[in-house]
Each structure stands twice: as structure tokens, then as C-alpha cells.
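Ops channel
N.P.: pipeline sanity check, posting one input/output pair.
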């Protein structure tokens, strides 16, 4: 290949970098392995340049730290370990050849001299540990709230977290005691969306979520439907499924489909028997009660549904006391 042709082909490869990733792969597949490798390196620099520029503009000093002196984030945001291992391996290969081009961000651990916690750049940190390299990073004093917002913004900017991982990230923050406005900021979304994500992650057992993994391409409607199906089946069926070798060999999205299919079969014919509806004569309220072995979900609908739900919530202490009295009352009273 002539130098002119090589230059033209490389320009064509780089010209695809701003396109969608799948289109990029299709467009450059016919290029030489060497050009693809160089283009991939340029793409990584392009994707990370904004984060680096933000740090530099803020006057942050970039230092090199012992990678083993950096602790993981307290808020977990990923499920698919196999996917992560592959991604870290690719980053390690790039860093072995070119070094760490873009720094991460850490914050000092209070009360522990010389110990830091990763805010973002976790994969680059893992790669540095694999290679025995120092980790290039900026150091910034951040509160817990600021750190989790930085962590979430980095993930959102890369569009790297799947829908269910975002749900798990939101739930983990809630369980850690973060306020709703912090969770919203970390995910760059509104309160109603965050509430829905937390509800979905709460209704699906953690064991099942970790077994399925990130399931890229599976969005909110399918996950919400899966959560609803779990209400009408026991756990034994899906626990047997996720323990099989065949299940573990599937891709993450296919594991989701396998669980979804199993729950669809198990819940067929049983959902109606465990579903109750109630409405007063004026039809201003509609209540649906879905019961399972270990969980009951009550949904308030219609025009006054939200107000009636709030009214009942205010009466919960009295209602529970009445329930306790009735359950302790002697038979025949």
C-alpha cells in the first residue's frame, strides 16, 4: 500500500470516530489491523479529553500514586464482571503501549494519611494495578455527595451504564443515605425517573440482578415487566435456572431473556388468582392488590388515587394498632 493510500485510509477511519460505535465498527472493518489499532487509541483520547480538560481548567495538579493505596468507591455501579474484565484488559493493553493518557480523580480518605478513594477512572486504576504502574490522577477534597455526583456524571457522559446498572446505582445511593436531589444530580435525571429506577431495583432480588448482569439494550419497560412477574412466582424456579452451567454461558442480554421466559411461563394462569381489585360506588378510586408468597403490592389509581393513598399513609399508625388488636383478639369475641 502506498503512503498516499495509507494516509487516505487512515483519514477515512478517523472520520468515523464521531459516528455511532456500531456504525464505526462496520465502516472500518475492512481497514488494516494497524490502522484500526491506531484509530482506537485516538478514539479513546477523544472520548476522555473533556474530562482531562475540566481537571486542568480547574487548576488540578496531576500526580502519580501507588495504585494499591487507592480504595474502591463505596457506591457500586456495575454488575457484569465478565464485561468489566474484558474492558480492563483492553485498557491495560493500551496503557502498556502508550501509558495512561487521561488521569483519573481521587479524594483523600479522612483520617488515613496517604490513602485515597477512587472517584472516577476505576477501570484505568484496575489496569494500572495489573501492570504494576503508578496511577495518574488529580486529587480533590470532595464530600460524599460531591464524589457520588462526579462518579455518576462520568458514567453518564460515557453512556456506559445500562439501564439496570443505573437503577442499581440509584438504589445503592439511597441505601447509603444520600438525599434524592443528590441521586438525581448523579444520574442527570428527574425525581420521578429516579423513583421508578429505585423501585425496579428494589423489587428484583440482588442475586438475580447480579446473575443477569448489565443486559445492554434491555430498557425500562422490560425490566419493569420482569419485576412485576416476580410478584406472582416463588424464587425456587429462577434460582435453579441461574445456577445452571448453560445459563452462565449465555450473554447478559440472553440471560435476561431466559429468566423473562421462565417467569412468563410460571406466572401464566396464576396471576389472575392472586390479583384483586376494589372500587367504591362513585368510581373515584381504583385499588389493585397483587399478592405473592412474600410480597403484596397495592396500587391506587383513578382521579383521587393519590389523595386517598396519602390519607391512608397518615392513618398507618392507627391502622396497625387496630390490626394488632384484631389479631390478638380471642376467637369468638
Amino acid at each position: 500500500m502506498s503512503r498516499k493510500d495509507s494516509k487516505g485510509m487512515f483519514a477515512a477511519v478517523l472520520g468515523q470516530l464521531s459516528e455511532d460505535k456500531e456504525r464505526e465498527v462496520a465502516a472500518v472493518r475492512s481497514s488494516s489491523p494497524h490502522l484500526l489499532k491506531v484509530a482506537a487509541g485516538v478514539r479513546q483520547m477523544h472520548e476522555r479529553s473533556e474530562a482531562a480538560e475540566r481537571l486542568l481548567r480547574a487548576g488540578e495538579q496531576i500526580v502519580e500514586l501507588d495504585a494499591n493505596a487507592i480504595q474502591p468507591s463505596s457506591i457500586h455501579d456495575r454488575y457484569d464482571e465478565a464485561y468489566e474484565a474484558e474492558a480492563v484488559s483492553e485498557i491495560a493493553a493500551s496503557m502498556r503501549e502508550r501509558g495512561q493518557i487521561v488521569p483519573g480523580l481521587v479524594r483523600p480518605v479522612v483520617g488515613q494519611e496517604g490513602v485515597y478513594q477512587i472517584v472516577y477512572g476505576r477501570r484505568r486504576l484496575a489496569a494500572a494495578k495489573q501492570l504494576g504502574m503508578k496511577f495518574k490522577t488529580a486529587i480533590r477534597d470532595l464530600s460524599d455527595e460531591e464524589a457520588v455526583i462526579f462518579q455518576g456524571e462520568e458514567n453518564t457522559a460515557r453512556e456506559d451504564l445500562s439501564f439496570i446498572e443505573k437503577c442499581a446505582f440509584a438504589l445503592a445511593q439511597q441505601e447509603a443515605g444520600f438525599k434524592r436531589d443528590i441521586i438525581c444530580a448523579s444520574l442527570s435525571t428527574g425525581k420521578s425517573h429516579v423513583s421508578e429506577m429505585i423501585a425496579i431495583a428494589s423489587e428484583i432480588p440482588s442475586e438475580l440482578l447480579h446473575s443477569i448482569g448489565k443486559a445492554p439494550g434491555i430498557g425500562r419497560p422490560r425490566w419493569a415487566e420482569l419485576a412485576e412477574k416476580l410478584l406472582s412466582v416463588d424464587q425456587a424456579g429462577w434460582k435453579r435456572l441461574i445456577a445452571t452451567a448453560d445459563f452462565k454461558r449465555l450473554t447478559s442480554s440472553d440471560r435476561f431473556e431466559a429468566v423473562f421466559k421462565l417467569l412468563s411461563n410460571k406466572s401464566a394462569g396464576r396471576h389472575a388468582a392472586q390479583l384483586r381489585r376494589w372500587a367504591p360506588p362513585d368510581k373515584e378510586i381504583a385499588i389493585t392488590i397483587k399478592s405473592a408468597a412474600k410480597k403484596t403490592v397495592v396500587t391506587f389509581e383513578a382521579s383521587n388515587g393519590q389523595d386517598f393513598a396519602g390519607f391512608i399513609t397518615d392513618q398507618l399508625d392507627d391502622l396497625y394498632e387496630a390490626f394488632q388488636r384484631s389479631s390478638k383478639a380471642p376467637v369468638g369475641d
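N.P.: looks fine end to end. Strands lie at 62-66, 70-71, 104-108, 116-120, 134-139, 275-278, 286-291, 296-301.
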